[in-house]
Every structure is written in structure tokens, then in C-alpha cells.
Amino acid sequence: MESFVGALGLYGLGTLALIWPKRLELAAHYVSMGLASIASLVVLCQSLLTLGGMGGASVWQLGRYSLAVDGWAAAFLLIIGLSGTAVSIYGMGYGRGYLGARIRQLAGLWNLFLGSMVMVVLAGDAFTFILAWEVMALVSFLLVNHESEKKQVVHAAYQYMVMTHLGTAAILVAFYLLGSGAESFAFADLAHSQLPPVLRHIAFGCAFLGFALKSGLMPLHVWLPNAHPAAPSHVSALMSGVMLKVAVYGFGRFVFEFIGADVFAYGLIVMVVGLVSAFLGVLYASMEKDMKRILAYSSVENMGIIFAAFGCGMLLVAMDKPYLSLAAFTAVLVHSFAHSLMKCLLFMSAGAVMHATGTRNVELLGGLMKKMPWTAAFTLVGSMSLASLPFTAGLVGEWLTLQGMMTLAFESGTPELRLLVIFAFILLGLTGALALGCFVRLYGVTFLGRRRSNLVLKAHEMPFTMLLGMGMEALVILAAGIMPAPLVNAMRQLLVDSPLAIPAGNFMGLWWNGGQSEAVFSPWLILIAALWLLAILALTISGKKVIVRQDVTWNCGTEPTRRQQYTATGFSKPLRRAFDFILKPRRERVFLQREHAYFGRKLHYNLLIPDQFTDRLYRPVQHIMIKAADTLRIVQQGSVRLYIGYTMIAMVIVLIWGGM
């Protein structure tokens, strides 16, 4: 625990960049981001020791408040430490772009943001948890609003502020209900809270609402596709890759310790909401043209997969088969870890592309692989992992999720549940296929082909610190994908030792008793693949030299131009037509003046994919609230005496109520 407290102290020192003199702002930036990197590295090392059994669970008491670390907390501290280290190193180079634009505030708040997330995970009582949670929310709001001179940034920041505080209010209600049943807000006492069934259901509903909102699950996701693109790219990486996982940590703490996972309806709700979020998230991601909005919607998809796995495990626990839930709950932790790596890497890549070209619109890019080879290589690793291709970390978590679903299908006691699980399989498979198409589209249109605008001409490779941060994440993604057993076994053991106390067991040949999970990756398959590669390499080296003549193909007498390439909009058109009933696209065609006597007229085409939840749910609520505010304006007469009268009436009512 002392190491974690020391890391919090380093984050605190990094926050002092806020008060450095302006003439030393660049030095303040480097010192602050360096301290953030060191502190995150300390968190990473200590969390690895705790997971390995060398650190052990511990509690640090400070009066009535406490910090505590156990296996569940260590898994998420590992995520914060690893991604925090890599993105902080990346931020040293990327942050220089804000020189003269409040760079000290950006660096100082960065440390406070990382420190607040560590505090949330270490909190040992409800007060510390809510305090750290609120600091995390306020600091992330300030970071999103960093470029406050832009109108769309301010709109996104305040939308995020409102939504995140609605979630905080729901979590507060859940803690209040649990505390009323335990007569204490220490986590150790909340674990023994005795609530009537009705209050228990309300507490679960509030907790799920609060953490689902912070996780960006649909239909509570509306803040996410706006806030993540509005923030600086390294902040977007931390929000998507790490902050969303803190919400998974909080929900797991509530389920495993406070409320329990033994109610069938709880697991069903969580799984269904997760599946819908996963499918719709990747569908909307496949339609976007802004790189960061694509990644934001992809976060909605992956958080949906994590919660679907969570719900699957809860259903198996509720069916009194906890040892069979091990694959699903392991998938929650493994995919949380993998998604943190993937999303941090790709948001850093998006920042590099924007830094080099000045745009995030993929329709204006193309051919960047020649200009930015290292960035292209790292982005390819992240895209492959998000598409769940073999030998990447993304496949491991999704494969374990499918294993959990398969277990649930075999153990389903009713035809209705079995039908639901079959539907879940279909939806997960469709989600995976859409994710593959989405990231083929993103990578191909951005890095391959010919340039689509002159913005690509000024592109250049990133400085060393930015490449180092991306390279660290890419390396771990490949390592976890090629050798998943250490990661899977560590997370499995964590769950066996958790308050849920899932017994290790065996089902359908999937061994969870400490051995290697051959169903994730078989060593024989790796050996066969290696032999094939060696054979191909030997044939290539020993084969006869082949003379290859390169020439352009016959082009029908017309020189092809870069405008004749597939666009991102054209690539996604089949999906747009297939899911037109969900997306409801708005098309606008405007014919301009004649361009040429033989080639007809110029055509301006505009396509908008509105978010249906925003249009059909949030806008009507917004209109009702505005009308209500206009109605209540009648009491606002501008008279101080009248306002004093309102205050006296309110005080009398409160006194009468208190007396009763």
C-alpha cells in the first residue's frame, strides 16, 4: 500500500505545474508529465506484485477513512498503471502542441486525473470513493473543455458534465441505501448490508444506472461521442482506455461485495443492455468519418461486450453454477485490459494523424503509410486487435466471452433463455463482423491508397516520445495475444480469491484449475503456423529468381485520379442500406452549375447519420425541461423582498417537517 500512496504523492507533485511561472511552462510540462510517467510506473509494478501474490491485500487507515487494495482493485490498477505510463510518455511530445495555450493547466490536471482514478480504485469506504469519483469527473470536464474557445468543445464538455453528475447522483443513492442497511459506509460493513428486496432492487438499479452512464452504454452514451473527440488526444486516450474501466471496477465492486450477483433479473438486464450497446456502437462507428468519433463509438461497442460478459456471469451465478461463470468473469477482466491497450493506442494514433495533417476526417486522408510508417504499423496492430484478429489481445477477451455464452447456452434451463442466448451469439458474431469492416475501413482509407487531399503532403512522422508511447501499447497487445496464458490465469486466480469465491473447475474441456487455457490459444496451432512461415520463407529464399515487370494496367484511355478511390462513405454504403431502418440517414443532394458540356453538372452530396437516441429521447426531454423553465419564470420577478419571502416559506416548511 505504501507504494500506491507514494505514487499518489508523485501525482500531487505533478499537479503543481498549475502554479509554475508562465515563462517556465515548457519545463513545467516536461517535469509534470515525467512525474506522471514515474507514478504510473510505480502503480504498474505494485499492481503486478499484488496480482502475483507478492504484494498481498492491505488497508491504509486514516481516521474514519481508508484506502484498501485487493485482487479486484489490483487488476484495474494494472490498467491505470500501464496505460498511464504509455500515454504520459506520449503526452510529453503531443502536449508541446499546446505551448502558449494553457499547457501548464493541461499537464497539472493530467496528474490530478490519473491520481483521482487511482484513488477511486483504492477507496475503502463510500465517502472516499464518492470524493475521488467527483474529483475525477470535475477534472475530466476541465480537460475536455481545455480548448474552450471552440463552441463545439464547450457544448461537449457541459453535456458531459450534466450526464456524469446524473450518474454520480444515482451512485450516491445506491450508497445511501446500502449504508442505511449497514449503519456504516465502510466497504467492509457495506458487504454485510441487510436490505429488504425492494430496496435491494432499487440500489442495484441506481448502481447500474450510474456506472452504465459513466461507461457509455446505450442509451446513456450521448456524451461519449462528443466529449472524447473534443478533448486533447492523449486525454481522449485516457478517458476511453482507463476512465471507462474505472466504472467497470465500481460496478464489479457493487455486484461482488455489496448487492450480490444471485438475482436472475440483474444478470439478464446487464447482458441485454450490453449486447444492444455492442451492436449499435459498432454500427454507428462504421458510419462515422471523424477518426475520434469512430473510436468513441467503438468504445461504446467494447464496453457493451464487457457488460454482456458480466451479465452472462451473473446469470450463471444466479443459476447456482458459479464455477461455470469463471470464463465470463475472466472475460470481463481480460477484455477490460485489452480494450484499454487498444483504445489508448488508437486515440494516440488519431492524435498523431491530426498533429501531422491538421484533420481527423478520413475522407481527406489516404497514403499516410509512406509518410508515417511507424504510426501506420502501430495503428495496424491496434486495428487488428479491435477487429479481434488472431495473435492480438482483442481476440482473447472476446473468445472468453463466447465461451461464457456457450456455457450459458448449455446450462439454460428454459427454452426462452436458450433462445435469448442463441440471439446473443448471433448479435456478438454480427458485432465482430461489423468491427472487422469498421477497422478495415478506418485503416485502409487513412493509411493506404493515394492521398485524397493536399493536407497529406505536409504529413511527417512523430517524435520519439510519441512513437515510444504507441509502441509500448502495441507490444503488449501482441504479447498478450501470442501468449495469453499468464494474463488469463492471473485474472482467473483473482476471481477464485475474490469475495465471490468462484471455485476452480472444469467444463467442456476448458480447464480453469491453474493450467493453461488451450481453448484460448493452442501451442500446437502456434507451432504449425510457425512451421508454415518457415516453409514459405525457405521456398522464397531458395527459389529461382523471378523477373517481375511492373507496368500500369490498361485504363480504357482515361487516366485514373485519386477521386476514383473508394471513400469511407462508399465503403459503408452496403451497411447503411441494410440497416437503413435503424440509422435513418438524411441525404442532401444539391446540383450546382454545369461543369462541362459533356460531363453534366457538379453535384454536392451531404450525408448525415443522426443519433436516434438523441433525436427521439433526449431532445423531447430537453424541450419539456425548457418549457417547464419558461413556466417557472413567472416566480422570477426581480424583487429581493419576494425572494426573501420564498426563503422564509421554505424554512417554515422545513421546520414543520422536522418537527413532525
TrEMBL record:
Bilayer-crossing regions: 27-51, 72-92, 112-144, 156-178, 198-223, 235-252, 264-287, 294-317, 323-353, 374-397, 417-443, 464-485, 521-541, 642-659
GO biological-process terms attached to the record: ATP synthesis coupled electron transport
Superkingdom of source: Bacteria
Keywords, ordered alphabetically: Cell membrane, Membrane, Oxidoreductase, Transmembrane, Transmembrane helix
MF annotations from Gene Ontology: NADH dehydrogenase (ubiquinone) activity; oxidoreductase activity
Location in or out of the cell: Cell membrane; Membrane
Gene Ontology cellular component list: plasma membrane
Entry membrane topology: Multi-pass membrane protein
Residue ranges of domain NADH:quinone oxidoreductase/Mrp antiporter transmembrane in the record: 123-407
The UniProt record lists the keyword Transmembrane: yes
Pfam family, one: Proton_antipo_M
Keyword Transmembrane helix: yes
UniProt protein name: Hydrogenase-4 component B
Organism: Selenomonas ruminantium
